[in-house]
Automatic annotation (TrEMBL):
Lineage: Bacteria, Bacillati, Actinomycetota, Actinomycetes, Kitasatosporales
Name recorded for this polypeptide: Uncharacterized protein
Length: 179
């Protein structure tokens, strides 16, 4: 039986824009800066300034799609090791969130954890979240940071390859374009 949160019913959103934002944040983290590279920040600012109301929604949907894709990759990697993806990812993710009170206020941690669990069990994170109403402004930074934390987790699993998660997505998008 199909779930109303099945990914086939979910909007994909603007994955390219979401990946640009996430990649910019990853580069800032890896370069030891508290913010993105000024050139990257300018690109992200231009991108977000060009978005209309539908563009912001597409960016949010794109971030949720990234979370889904990251968790799908992590689920496959965990299954190869006979591990449960939820047990592997969620405890360290929640611990990281709790250490970042400026990005993750305590009240958004359950929602972001729920997004990750939904994606880890094969459900669409954005459709799962939609059950509880509209996105709030207070959830935007945690949503971005959740995608960054998952990408960083993947990069560390790939031997500290700082671009692995980004390549994972761009390769998947390239294959989808070819099909």
């Amino acid at each position: 039986m199909s779930s109303p949160c099945d990914p086939e019913y979910a909007p994909v959103g603007d994955i390219d824009a979401a990946l640009l934002v996430i990649d910019s944040q990853l580069k800032a983290v890896y370069n030891g800066r508290s913010g993105p590279d000024p050139e990257q920040e300018q690109m992200v600012n231009q991108l977000t300034a060009s978005l209309g109301p539908g563009g912001v929604e597409a960016l949010v949907d794109g971030a949720c799609t990234l979370i889904y894709m990251f968790m799908s990759w992590l689920r496959a990697a965990c299954e190869e090791q006979d591990e449960d993806v939820i047990a592997h990812v969620v405890p360290s993710l929640v611990a990281s969130m709790r250490m970042m009170p400026m990005s993750f206020r305590p009240e958004v941690i359950p929602t972001m954890t729920g997004l990750v669990v939904a994606a880890g069990t094969g459900l669409s994170p954005n459709l799962w979240r939609a059950q509880y109403g509209e996105w709030t402004g207070a959830e935007m930074t945690p949503l971005e940071a959740t995608a960054v934390l998952l990408a960083d987790h993947i990069n560390r699993l790939a031997g500290d390859d700082h671009d692995f998660a980004t390549r994972l997505i761009t390769d998947a998008l390239s294959r989808a374009d070819q099909d």
